[in-house]
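RECORD TYPE: inverse folding
INPUT: structure tokens
STRUCTURE:
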């Protein structure tokens, strides 16, 4: 389910301190200060609101899904406890909320709500690098080689491009993950996942606002009567 990729991306922005790269020495010299700035930015962040967009490309078929667009909200309760709300509005409405380990996904079109406990290991596999919040980014250093590609300008903003390649003993669903770290926020605002079959998922966060007031009631869903509830 594509919304879970958004979930992984959102949660990674409130990650635990980042590790040092384990790539080549020249790469380390460039990667280490980026990771240190990201760590500092994460420690200062208590809440986040951003516009979210996501596209899936089927490279071998030359096709792509309609873009998904919406808004995400996050609130950090403590180092490992994050509240999350993602509202997808395009192409159809879906709302997912997460508090602790529990999630609720409401799909108005089919009048259904899926609720359950997040399998953190399964989510990490399903949502890629940006789901590493659940186990801390120290785990990412064990699974990936992290390399600095260079600096780029996207829509007038300066970003550092990092490439994460699975280590030989960790190869599986993904061939590589590209992250673009915004130099104003020092957060990864663009992510591209390349799957084993070469399909790609591109996710972007825009209009990012940090440390805004987000009431806890925002992360509670009051479902209409008659909604079918399904255990996830």
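DESIGNED SEQUENCE:
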């Amino acid at each position: 389910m594509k919304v879970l990729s958004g979930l992984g991306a959102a949660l990674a922005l409130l990650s635990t301190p980042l590790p040092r790269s384990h790539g080549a020495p020249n790469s380390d010299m460039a990667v280490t200060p980026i990771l240190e700035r990201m760590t500092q930015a994460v420690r200062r962040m208590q809440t986040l609101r951003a516009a979210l967009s996501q596209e899936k490309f089927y490279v071998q078929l030359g096709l792509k899904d309609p873009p998904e667009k919406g808004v995400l909200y996050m609130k950090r309760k403590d180092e490992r406890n994050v509240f999350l709300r993602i509202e997808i509005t395009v192409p159809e409405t879906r709302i997912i909320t997460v508090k602790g380990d529990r999630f609720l996904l409401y799909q108005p079109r089919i009048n259904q709500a899926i609720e359950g406990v997040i399998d953190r290991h399964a989510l990490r596999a399903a949502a890629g690098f940006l789901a590493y919040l659940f186990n801390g980014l120290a785990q990412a250093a064990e699974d990936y080689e992290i390399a600095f590609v260079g600096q780029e300008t996207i829509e007038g903003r300066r970003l550092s491009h990092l490439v994460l390649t699975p280590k030989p003993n960790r190869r599986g669903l993904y061939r590589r993950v590209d992250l673009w770290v915004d130099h104003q926020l020092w957060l990864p605002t663009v992510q591209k996942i390349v799957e084993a079959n070469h399909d790609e998922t591109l996710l972007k966060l825009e209009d990012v606002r940090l440390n805004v007031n987000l009431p806890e009631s925002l992360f509670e869903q009051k479902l209409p009567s008659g909604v079918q509830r399904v255990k996830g």
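NOTES: The domain at 2-216 is CATH 2.50.20.10 (outer membrane lipoprotein receptor (LolB), chain A).
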